[in-house]
Amino acid sequence: MWFETVFYAVTFIVSAGLSVVGIMIAYQLYQIHQKHVFQLLLYQQIFLISFFIYGIWGNIALHEILPELSLNNEIKTKLTIFIPVIGIPFLVVSWFMLLRFAYLLNGFTESKSFPLIYFPVLLITVVVFSIFVINGVVKIKTTPELFIVRAIASINLIVHCFFLYPFLFEKKNNPISKEVRFTKTHALYYFLGVIVYSGILWFFDIFGSFSVCISIILLFAISILIPVILKLNEKQHISPPTSNSMNFIDFCRLYEISKRESEIIIEICTGKSNKAISEKLFITLQTVKDHNYRIYSKLGVKNRTQLSNLVREKTGI
After folding, report:
1. Which helix (H) or strand (E) element contains residue 54?
2. pLDDT tens column, 245-283
3. Cβ atoms of 82 and 131 closer than 8 Å
4. CB 94 within 8 A of CB 51
5. Distance in Å from the first CA to the final CA of the chain
6. Longest CA pairwise span in the chain (Å)
7. What stretch of H or E contains 242?
8. Overall pTM surpassing 0.85 (yes/no)
């Protein structure tokens, strides 16, 4: 039906847009703060979206192609299960990055043995389970699509229970909380969203293609909540000064300007070009441009003139 095609087309556009938003915000957070924890978040978004695109849209495309092929029902069932399973490694890595992000964000020390246990156990479990299903050891009492979705949703919910733990028992000396805010309340809201989409995915096809499309959009929207919340609270966290009595060191401390960035700000305010700055500080031209981008983002300015005016206004320099 034509309206089903329209539903899927609109859903693909919306989900693709949400994916871009999540990845771009995570990338921007990493570029500005240059912290390992934000790099983990960026990787988590990339691997998660990769699985969604492959596992969800690949399966939908397969579902549209299979009726045109002269295959028996048994082979069609195995293909429907096998295709999403190939994308499982993307999801496994995404869960790994999510857990590392949560524990590191809350000041927990990373365990070197964790990846050595996590990956073999989870991947072996998935492979063995898939073999059992394909060989009929585990019987499928529902449609293959619904079975796969329910299995993944269940494991995903369990993983997010471990994600929630460090927020409920966070350490007091959290070094990241000074730069961004992702509190216990934020984590609970996100976890509630995971519960909601897990419940909806359990019956994702109850109303046909319409409910499938709504489930996909909701899944993508909730999955980018972490970078979105971090970005929104980052903006609220930075409060500009109200007087020009501070010195330059206090100015840099307030806006979380690094030592190298402060050197570049001084050179910009004296009128030096990017090339002249790179030559004086013995860094590449691209490095200067990257520092400029982070400086502009932190100070909320768009160009050199606004930067110079802000420094003069707040410090009197």
Report:
1. none
2. 578 888 888 888 888 999 999 999 988 999 999 999 999
3. no
4. yes
5. 68
6. 79
7. none
8. no
